Amino acid sequence: MFTGIIEDIGTVQNIEQKRETIRLSIAAKKMNLCASQIGASIAVNGVCLTITAKEAAGFTADVMPETFRVTSLGQLVTGDLVNLERAVPVNGRFDGHFVLGHVDQTTSVLRRYQEQTALIMVFKMPPALQKQIVTKGSIAIDGISLTIIHADKREFKVGLIPHSQQEATLAGKRIGAVVNLETDVLAKYIERQMQTSKF
């Protein structure tokens, strides 16, 4: 489990791709991986991956076909920057919101504009997720825990404070860029319950 509070911005060092499987090698700038074991979970742009090898300043992880098809990881190229977060330890403090690292699907940036110190980013509303993306609700975009400012049938928007603009990659996304979405897990269960309940 993750919180959506990004720990580091990593750099893609190497990509080995065979059809819809990828092996990613990523260098971390400031995140200490000494305590992370082989087999530990790490979120890369909001996607929960397993560390399969590590060095002092980086790690390797495999991307399976389902992840390749659902997320934006298949679009990465060497040199790209990615958001990184290690799994929350049992005794750790919880910030952000409950993020599983299970991306629902991708969407794209429609517009972006400055509102005083906040960067407002507007995204295309995926029809399949419309009931789970609600105004003032939580969402993870490329692994970043954000509050939805507004949502309707066509689009939804979030705001980035200066800290979020500097400490994660989302502020660098331009119009048309593809991002990973994970809706609030509570919204998923509520929608499922509504679908299966008999009234």
Q: What features would you describe in this structure?
A:
One of its GO terms (biological process) is riboflavin biosynthetic process. The chain starts with 7 loop residues before the first strand and ends with a helix. The mean pLDDT is 92. The chain folds into two domains: 79 residues, Elongation Factor Tu (Ef-tu), domain 3 (Beta Barrel); 92 residues, Beta Barrel (Elongation Factor Tu (Ef-tu), domain 3), CATH 2.40.30.20. It is built from three helices and twelve strands; from the N terminus they run E-E-E-E-E-H-E-E-E-E-E-E-H-E-H. The protein is globular. Helices cover 12% and strands 43% of the residues. Strands 1-2-5-4-3-6 form a six-stranded antiparallel beta barrel. It has 199 residues and is mainly β.
Fill in the keyword field for this structure:
six-stranded antiparallel barrel, Elongation Factor Tu (Ef-tu), domain 3, 199 residues, six-stranded antiparallel β-barrel, 3 helices, 2 domains, 43% strand, mainly beta, globular
Helix content: 10-25%
- Based on secondary structure, the structural category is mainly beta
Number of alpha- plus pi-helical segments: 3
- The CATH architecture term of the largest domain is Beta Barrel
Give helix and strand order, one letter per element, not per position: EEEEEHEEEEEEHEH
Number of structural units classed as domains: 2
Give the low-confidence spans.
none
Beta-strand residue percentage: 35-45%
User: CATH class of the largest domain, please?
Assistant: Mainly Beta
The value of Rg in angstroms is 17 Å
For the report, how would you describe the main beta sheet?
Answer: 6 strands, antiparallel, barrel
